[in-house]
Specification:
heterodimer, A: alpha/beta, Rossmann fold, B: mainly alpha, 10 helices, 75% helix, 0% strand
C-alpha cells in the first residue's frame, strides 16, 4: 500500500508547515497577553437559549455526533457537548448523547462524566444517558429518530460528520418542535441543516466553536493562526488566477501550485531547463 | 483452539513452525492483555498530573511518528540499494499502527454493545415506560448476533452451513435488515420535500434569490429544461461558433441547462471549495493542538 509523503509535493508540505507555524506563533502571542477578537456566531449564542427552553419544558436535550469516527472532528464535537452538558448540569435538565461509533461512545462517557463533575453535580451523571445505538447508518438514524419522537426532545444539538441521515434527524426534530443547532464539516449536508434547523454552523466555524465558547487564549490564538492561513490560501488563489491569465496554465509557477511533477518543473525552469 | 488456529493460518507474518504458532500467539495475546490490565491500576494510583503527563507523552510520540513518516524523504536507494523507493524506514510501521487503532475500536465496540444491552435489560426488568421496545431490541440483537456469528464461522469453514443457517441468515440480513435500511433511506425523499418547502418560502430577498436559483437549477438539470430551451423556444444548442457576434454568443448560453451548469460550476463549486479550505485548515489547527496537548476539551 502506498502512502502520501511530503516529497510527493514539497509545495504542499511547505504550506502545511506555514499553517502550523502561523497557528503556533499566534497561540504564543495569545499566551503572552495579546487581545484577540472573535466575531459573533449566532448559532453558538443560541445554545443557552435552547437549553433554557428544554429546562422550562422539562424535556430532554439530545446531542448527536453523527457518524463521526474517533478523530479530530469527534474531539471537537465532544468538546462542544461537554460545554453544553456543563450548562445543562446547572439546571438538572435531562440529556441524551447518541453515538454511532463505539470509540466516540467510550470517550463521550468520560467527557460527560467530567462535565458533570466540573459543574459540581456528579450526582446527575447517568451512564445510560450516553448511548451507543448502532454503527449501521440507517439503524442509527432510525434509533435517533425514534428517541426524538418518543421523548419529544426540546433541543437537539448535532455536531460532527453527517451523511444522508442528517435530514432524518433534523426533520424529526422539527416535527416535535425542538430548537435545533447543527454544525458540520460535511459540506454536502449543510443545505439540509440550513433548511431544517434553527441555526447552522458552517465549515470552519465548527472548529472555532471551542474558542468561541471558552475564550481560552490558546484556542483564540489558534483561530487567528487559521485566519492567517486562510488569507494565504485566498492570496494564492488570486495570485494563481492572475499568473495563469498572464502566463497560461502550463507555466511552471502554476504547476507548482499542486499539479503532479510541478515542483520538478518549477525548479528545472529556474535552472533554465524549461518547463518540463 | 480450532478458531485460533484458523485465524493464525490466515496471517502471512506468522513464519514460525506449525507447532509453535498457537503457543506464540497465545503468549502474545495473554502478554498484551496482562500489560493492559496492569497499566490500569498503575494509572489509577498516579496523581492526575502524573496521569496527564503520561497521556501527553504518548500523544506526542504517536503524533510525531505519523508526522515524521510524512515529512521524511522517501527513496533511500542511494544509501540502501535494496530499499523500496516509494517509502522511508517508518512507512512499514504504519499498517501495524493502524491495526492497533482497529483493535482499540473493536474493544470499544464491545463496551458500546454492553452498554446498549444493559440499558434495555434494565428497561425490561424494571418495566420502565415503553419496555416492550426493549424486548424487541434484545430478541433482535440475540437472533441477529447468533446467525451472524454462525455465518462468519461457516464462511471460514469452522462450522457446517446447514439449510437453517443459510435460510435464516438470508431472511434476517437480505430480507429484513437491508430492506429496513432502504425504507429509512427512502424517508429522506419525503423529508427533502418538507424541508425544501420551508426553505423556499419567500420571506426575504435572500429566500427569493434562493428559490429562483433553485428552480432554475432543478429545471435546468432535468430533460424539461432542455425541452423548454431548445425545442419550445428554439434556442441554439452547443457552444457558439468561433468568431460569432455577441448576440449569437448570448443565444448559445441562455438555455436553462447552460445556466444551471453555470450556477453549479461557477457559483456553487467555488463556495464549496472555500468551505473545504476552511475545514481543512481548521482540522489541521485542531490536530496540532491535540498533538501538543494544548486542547483541553475532552483531554
Amino acid at each position: 500500500m502506498s502512502y502520501q509523503h511530503a516529497q510527493d509535493n514539497w509545495f504542499a508540505a511547505i504550506v502545511i508547515g506555514f499553517i502550523a507555524l502561523a497557528v503556533l506563533l499566534n497561540i504564543l502571542r495569545a499566551r503572552m497577553g495579546a487581545q484577540l477578537y472573535i466575531r459573533r456566531i449566532p448559532g453558538l449564542d443560541a445554545i443557552d437559549e435552547a437549553i433554557g427552553r428544554s429546562t422550562e419544558l422539562g424535556r430532554p436535550v439530545t446531542m448527536i455526533p453523527g457518524l463521526t469516527a474517533f478523530g479530530v472532528v469527534a474531539v471537537q464535537a465532544l468538546t462542544i457537548f461537554k460545554y453544553i452538558t456543563k450548562q445543562i448540569a446547572r439546571f438538572a435538565t435531562p440529556m441524551r448523547l447518541l453515538s454511532a461509533d463505539a470509540t466516540v461512545f467510550a470517550v463521550a462517557q468520560e467527557a460527560i462524566a467530567d462535565a458533570y463533575n466540573e459543574a459540581g453535580r456528579p450526582d446527575l451523571y447517568d451512564a445510560d444517558n450516553i448511548r451507543f445505538l448502532s454503527d449501521r447508518q440507517f439503524a442509527f438514524a432510525s434509533g435517533v429518530a425514534g428517541l426524538i419522537q418518543r421523548e419529544r426532545v426540546a433541543a437537539s444539538f448535532m455536531f460532527g460528520e453527517f451523511y444522508a441521515e442528517s435530514l432524518i434527524f433534523a426533520e424529526t426534530g422539527n416535527m416535535v418542535g425542538a430548537i435545533q443547532i447543527a454544525g458540520t464539516v460535511s459540506f454536502t449536508q449543510v443545505p439540509f441543516f440550513v433548511a431544517a434547523c434553527d441555526y447552522t454552523i458552517i465549515g470552519d466555524e465548527f472548529y472555532a466553536t471551542s474558542a468561541y465558547l471558552s475564550r481560552e487564549p490558546v484556542l483564540l490564538g489558534s483561530l487567528v493562526g487559521q485566519d492567517i492561513a486562510k488569507l494565504l490560501f485566498a492570496l494564492t488563489a488570486v495570485g494563481g488566477v492572475i499568473a495563469s491569465t498572464i502566463a497560461g496554465t502550463d507555466a511552471p509557477i502554476i504547476k507548482l501550485l499542486g499539479q503532479p511533477g510541478g515542483w520538478e518543473a518549477f525548479w528545472s525552469s529556474l535552472g533554465g531547463g524549461g518547463g518540463q | 483452539m480450532g478458531v485460533l488456529n484458523h485465524l493464525i493460518a490466515q496471517q502471512s507474518v506468522w513464519q514460525l513452525p506449525e507447532g509453535s504458532r498457537v503457543l506464540f500467539a497465545t503468549l502474545i495475546v495473554l502478554g498484551a492483555f496482562v500489560l493492559f490490565l496492569g497499566l490500569i491500576p498503575v494509572l489509577q494510583t498516579l496523581p492526575p498530573r502524573g496521569r496527564r503527563a503520561i497521556v501527553v507523552i504518548i500523544t506526542f510520540l504517536a503524533g510525531l511518528f505519523f508526522a515524521a513518516e510524512f515529512f521524511l524523504p522517501i527513496n533511500w536507494t542511494a544509501i540502501f540499494p535494496k530499499d523500496d523507493p516509494t517509502r522511508n524506514f517508518l512507512t512499514p510501521a504504519i499498517q501495524p499502527a493502524q491495526n492497533v487503532l482497529q483493535i482499540i475500536g473493536a474493544l470499544a465496540l464491545g463496551l458500546g454493545t454492553f452498554g446498549l444491552v444493559r440499558l434495555h435489560l434494565r428497561n425490561v426488568v424494571q418495566k420502565r415506560a415503553q419496555w416492550g421496545y426493549s424486548i424487541v431490541l434484545l430478541v433482535s440483537f440475540i437472533t441477529m448476533a447468533t446467525f451472524s456469528i454462525l455465518n462468519t464461522l461457516a464462511e471460514k469453514e469452522i462450522v457446517e452451513r446447514g439449510p437453517v443457517l443459510e435460510r435464516g441468515f438470508s431472511i434476517l440480513f437480505d430480507y429484513t435488515l437491508v430492506q429496513l435500511d432502504a425504507a429509512m433511506f427512502s424517508l429522506i425523499a419525503f423529508y427533502i420535500f418538507s424541508a425544501a418547502y420551508r426553505a423556499f418560502r419567500i420571506r426575504s430577498i435572500e429566500a427569493s434569490i434562493l428559490m429562483f436559483t433553485a428552480m432554475l437549477v432543478m429545471i435546468g438539470v432535468v430533460p424539461l429544461g432542455a425541452y423548454l430551451s431548445y425545442t419550445l423556444l428554439g434556442l441554439p444548442e452547443g457552444a457558439a461558433p468561433e468568431g460569432a457576434n455577441f448576440l449569437t454568443q448570448v443565444q448559445h448560453n441562455i438555455g436553462l441547462p447552460k445556466i444551471a451548469n453555470w450556477v453549479l460550476t461557477q457559483l456553487n463549486a467555488p463556495a464549496q471549495r472555500a468551505i473545504e479550505f476552511g475545514v481543512g485548515i481548521g482540522g489541521l489547527a485542531m490536530a496540532i493542538r491535540l498533538w501538543l496537548s494544548l486542547e483541553r476539551g475532552v483531554t
